[in-house]
Amino acid sequence: MADLSILIRAVEEADSASLLTRAVQNLAAVGLEAAVPTLIAALSYNNPGAAVAAVDGLVTIGQAAVPALLEQLDQHNYTARSWTIRALAGIGDPRGLVTLLGGATADFSPSVRRAAARGLGVMKWQWFPDDLLEIAQAEALEALLFVAQQDEEWVVRYAAVVGLQALAATLTATDPDGRSQIQAQFEKMAIDDESWAVRARILMAQQQIQAKTSYLLLQPPEEQASPLSAVDWQMILESLYRRKGQERLMLSEGDPRSYQAMAVAIAQETNPPH
Predict the structure, then answer these.
(1) What region does 129 belong to: left with phi over 0, alpha with psi -120 to 50, or beta?
(2) Where are the transmembrane segments (predicted)?
């Protein structure tokens, strides 16, 4: 394996589009966390080939790349931001959830909305604490249904179908009502959507959901220890709270302080006393 410093220097010194793309591809291939800053810098270059390679590398690195990607979102370079959202969609880390919700429903670029919609379906739901899982999946479902119903671009609606299919598998045991909403949306789109490609993808999704449901119902729920901290989960919860607005995230008794109590409960669940 080439020395990492050599690979980074090759990216920094590339003097043509083709050399830059090749250099980023080589750096991305090593999959090391130390490459993250250089790969993120490549997202802002006016070089789609290098950006695609950087996204692939960041997705391979995964969780370790997320904090730097989220920091990148605060910059004013839209090109870098759009590629960053695609990287977060590919990683599926819960810390990117709110970004993907906004990207799927409000970004002006169809390619970003498409990536975000797909990413919402393959979020690492098995990492979520139970109390937060219900809230987060409800938000993802609402966003994907909105995209499927409202987006003018067929490729984005197609991605929403893919996302909804993936989400349906995780809702089988936890939210039968949500799964019913997905099935109803598919039935409507299978008749009404103007794109034959979307209609065909819906038929595939319906068949695969039906085939997979019986199997899933016989399986114990997937369990996987989350690498995120109690602070991470509290920040995710607070971000969701801000996104929806206080009036839409109150519990049935209408007391927003209940969300503070939930944050404490999540912290205790994810970081129990020794």
Answers:
(1) beta
(2) none
